[in-house]
Amino acid sequence: MNRTTAVEGDAEVIRRSLAQPELFAQLYDRYAPDIHRYAARRLGDGAADDLTADTFLAAFRTRSRYDLSRGNARPWLYGIAANLIGKQRRTEIRALRALARTGTDPLAESWVDRADSRVDAQSAHAPLAGALAGLSAGDRHVLLLVAWADLSYPEVAEALGIPLGTVRSRLNRARRKVRSALGADPAFVVNASEVAQ
Amino acid sequence: MDDLTKVRELRAEAPAPDRARLAPGRMRLLDAAENGRALRRTVRIGRDWRFAAVGAVLAVTASAVLAVNLADHGGSDVSPKPAASQSVKPGTAQEFLEAAARAAESVRGAEPQDDQWYYTKSIGASVEPDTGELGKPTTDEDWFTVGPRKGEEGDWRTYYRLVTHLPDDPQGIVRAIQEAYPPPDAYALDSKKPTHVFSAIQSVTRTPLTSLEGKGQAKLYRALASLEGIELVGHRVTDAAGREVVAITVKPEPKDRYRYEILLQPDTYQVVGSRMVVAHDFTDTNEETAFFPGTWKAGDVMNTGASLVRTFVDDKNERP
Q1: What is the per-residue pLDDT for A191?
Q2: In this predicted structure, what is the pLDDT of residue B286?
Q3: Beta carbons of A104 and A158 less than 8 angstroms apart
Q4: Phi and psi (nearest 5°) for B69?
């Protein structure tokens, strides 16, 4: 996908969809694959189907309130998805704890062959999974929107409707806990290039 | 390896979904768009387009948690029921709608409190592009505030204010609906066109829950009866819940691909659902612009929705 071309047209698509609702499907075509994969990583492949559909339905219904000065709808959509994922946080935490406890990721069963050597690699993620399960919902959203959705810090702020400073503080707190779980020095300072986002 | 890299590696094997995997979600979105387009001509009610699209009520309530599930005709002795005239036969749309108006006027019911919630449960299905037939019906529930509540969207009070202050003439009714539910854009609604008036009225036509709104609903039914081209569908119709119903429609304009139906129960005159039906044969395979790409025959049902329960409850997420 030519992301630049797509991003340029998001606000225009939303504006036009107010009069021609079916045009909103263009946003689905652009971003549903990304939202689906993100949801699959957080809740599992099966849950991702409904969550993706629900995300776009919620976006469609609230599109009249979209800030048309924001040309890129991607953060908005991830914010809606994050909100819906947050409603299933017990499911998410349960799976992370299962991975932390057993070394086998229940979510990955649908896409990883059990005989595959990658199953063994899952056990290496056990401490990380335990750390993610222990994060607050807000901290986990910020960390995973940065790491899995590749959102910039301002985009995360936009997605979650929180100040940029809060994004930074939540991310730093989450990363400290992750580093601690991984055995690294939790006091390690985030490098300048990341802070400058 | 830094911590963010480790996080990025977790579940990194998750596959990107293919088009077939995403198709049902896209279809759900197009269903919403299709209904949104229909409503664009009329009103935008609340946050849930299906709420208006179904345009139906079948719960009649006298208390906070009393509901009647008409799917099994589970009427309650303490529910206020329209005093339908058993002598009226659905010979013409005008006769049937007059009977429905009289039934609505006879409704008696308790008024809800501001801190209560308006609970709706509906069922609906849309045509599947792969098979060309209606898909498996899905049910939806929703809770709307009765009175204003911070952080929540209300619907019932707006609707109630509307139907208790309706004028008698169809054009005035359309204006009142537009004032109560201003469209977010300037999609023209021509109150001289029967199809537009029908759509506007359909979006707020329900079986009344209270006596005051019953008077307003009676005006809506009589306004429908006055429309040129209003008619009963001349064959057996069942709603999305499988109930045999009477379908009322208005003759579509020549350019219209679809016509819309209001579904009422033949014995109680309760509004129980709606359908979108192909008006005349057409083929449109443009997947970018057609709501339902393909070849369709007059009479094909593209979307059907029915209300299962509507009532007031004391708390959000509470069911009757």
Answers
A1: 40
A2: 66
A3: no
A4: -95, 105
CATH number (domain holding residue A189): 1.10.10.10
C-beta atoms of A105 and B11 within 8 A: yes
Q: Is the pLDDT of residue B248 over 50?
A: yes
CB contact under 8 A, B4 and A18: no
Q: Search chain B and give the residue with CA nearest A122.
A: B10
In B, what residues contact A, Cβ < 8 A?
3-4, 6-11, 13-17, 21-22, 24-26, 28-30, 32-34, 36-37, 40, 47-49, 184-187, 289, 291
Whether residues A2 and A83 share a domain: the answer is: yes
Structural domain contains residue A106:
no
Tell me, yes or no, if A175 comes closer than 8 A to chain B by beta carbon: yes
Q: Is residue A112 part of a domain?
A: no
Whether residue A73 sits in one domain with residue A13: yes
The burial of A92, by beta-carbon neighbours within 10 Å (0-12 exposed, 13-18 middle, 19 or more buried), is given as: buried
Please tell me the total count of domains within chain A: 2
A46 CB near a chain B CB, below 8 Å?
A: no
Q: Tell whether A58 is within 8 A of chain B (Cβ).
A: no
Q: Residue A112 gets which letter from DSSP? A: S
Domain check: are A69 and A12 in the same one? yes
In a domain, A113, yes or no: no
Q: Which of B3, B33, B47 sits opposite A25 (nearest CB)?
A: B33
Instruction: Tell me if B33 and A105 make a contact (CB, 8 A cut-off).
Output: no
- Where a domain ends, among A64, A87, A110? A87
Nearest CA to CA, how far is A93 from chain B (Å)?
14
**Distance (Å, rounded) from C-alpha B262 to C-alpha B275?**
7
Same domain, yes or no: A59 and A139: no
Q: Which of A155-160's residues contact partners 24+ apart within 8 Å by CB, and which partners?
A: A155/A72, A155/A74, A155/A75, A155/A78, A156/A75, A158/A70, A158/A75, A158/A76, A158/A79, A159/A75, A159/A76, A159/A78, A159/A79, A159/A82, A160/A79, A160/A82
A32 to chain B, any CB pair closer than 8 A? The answer is yes
**Residue A123 lies inside a defined structural domain of this protein:** no
The domain of A182 spans 135-197
Please determine, for residue B72, whether its predicted confidence score (pLDDT) is greater than 90. Answer: no
- Round to whole Å and give the CA distance between B271 and B263: 6
Q: Is the pLDDT of residue B253 over 60?
A: yes
* Interchain pair B34, A21: CB under 8 A: yes
SS3 A168: helix
Residue A12 is predicted with a pLDDT of: 82
Check if the beta carbon of residue B40 is closer than 8 Å to that of residue B183. yes
Closest partner CB to B8 (pick from A28, A111, A147) = A147
